[in-house]
Specification:
Radius of gyration: 31 Å
Number of strands: 11
Strand content: 15-25%
Largest sheet: 5 strands, parallel
CATH superfamily of the largest domain: Glucose-6-phosphate isomerase like protein, domain 1
Structural class: alpha/beta
Number of domains: 2
Distance between the termini: 44 Å
Order of helices and strands: HHEHEHEHHEHEHHHHEHEEHHEHEEH
Number of helices: 16
Helix content: 40-55%
CATH topology of the largest domain: Rossmann fold
Shape: elongated
Length: 319
């Protein structure tokens, strides 16, 4: 019985969403155009469950390039209307279209001359009559057995809000890079904004030995800097090779006379490098492609300017 009920709720809400597609018309187009031409912010307002949906829609708009904020109607009639400016636009959400607290705000909105878009299930309601654009989010019934609890109606309003936000996103040509700028702490933000130069190690942190260095010096440098590797440079300080702990293990397997060798005799020439201006995500791709854990960042004279380890990418959340 429990499983049957849960499936019924999901089905009924899904049906309500599918019905919304038929309600996308020129009113929706006009709403998009009004918001595109708005020089201020979209002020989303609603009370109760509609208010909760409104907060989510405001957040979605703001994160996709449309400045938006939420205004609680009850707080609005007690002073918070001061946040509404003449360049703003109102997006009101009300199932009945008869919410008193919301309706009391409309004369003020009209006096300010701000456009009003309303999501409602009652196209003939007092709120709808005073709106510039009315978007139909009506549903045949709630998913609740008694047709009382806001379920299908709130889902419909939420989905219509998503449709509005994403239509605006496309019209603004909002790119993944734009999205990342608004989400610098998110995974996408880190992948699209974080550069190699932001997390690479520089200066004395870079393990470096001369190509004439003996194996003791080479191993000490490699282990003391804790990268499991060391760069090898020539007399001009130019990068000529790299020596890793993997190279050391393979060397020990081949010969017992390792301490008679010099860095230039055991190094891997032409190590993999990356420009500091490249995205950290690209550094990860290079490491994965070559099955390595470090990349060197050279300067224009090919001197080691930085080093980046797989652990740095993990710590920065790029992986």
């Amino acid at each position: 019985m429990i499983i049957k009920k849960a499936k019924e709720v999901i089905r009924r809400e899904a049906e309500a969403i599918l019905e919304l597609e038929k309600k996308i018309n020129q009113r929706f187009v006009k709403a998009v155009e009004l918001i595109l031409n708005c020089k201020g912010r979209v002020i989303v307002t609603g009370i109760g469950k509609s208010g909760i949906i409104g907060k989510k829609i405001a957040a979605t708009l703001a994160s996709t390039g449309t400045p938006a904020m939420f205004l609680h109607p009850a707080e609005g009639i007690h002073g918070d209307l001061g946040m509404v400016r003449r360049d703003d636009l109102i997006l009101a959400i009300t199932k009945s279209g008869e919410t008193d607290e919301l309706y009391q705000l409309f004369p003020i909105f009209k006096r300010l001359g701000v456009p009003i878009i309303t999501f409602t299930g009652n196209l003939l309601s007092p709120v709808a009559e005073k709106s510039d654009v009315v978007i139909d989010v009506s549903v045949d019934s709630e998913a609740c057995s008694n047709n009382l609890v806001p379920t299908s109606s709130t889902t419909a309003a939420l989905v219509m809000g998503d449709a509005l936000a994403l239509a605006l996103l496309d019209e603004r040509h909002f790119s993944p890079e734009d999205f990342a700028l608004l989400h610098p702490g998110g995974n996408l933000g880190r992948k699209l904004l974080l550069k190699v130069s932001d997390i690479m190690h520089t200066g004395d942190s870079i393990p470096t030995v001369s190509e004439q260095a003996n194996m003791k010096e080479t191993i000490l440098e490699m282990t003391s800097k804790r990268f499991g590797t060391t760069t090898v440079v020539n007399e001009k300080k130019e990068l000529v090779g790299i020596f890793t702990d993997g190279d050391l293990r393979r060397l020990v397997e081949r010969t017992d006379a390792i301490f008679k060798l010099k860095a230039k005799e055991v190094m891997t020439p032409d190590p993999k490098t990356i420009d500091g201006e490249e995205l950290a995500a690209k550094a990860l791709n290079v490491m994965e492609s070559y099955n390595i854990t470090c990349l060197i960042i050279p300067d224009p004279q090919r001197r080691p300017k930085g080093i980046i380890h797989l652990h740095d990418l993990l710590k920065a959340g790029v992986v």
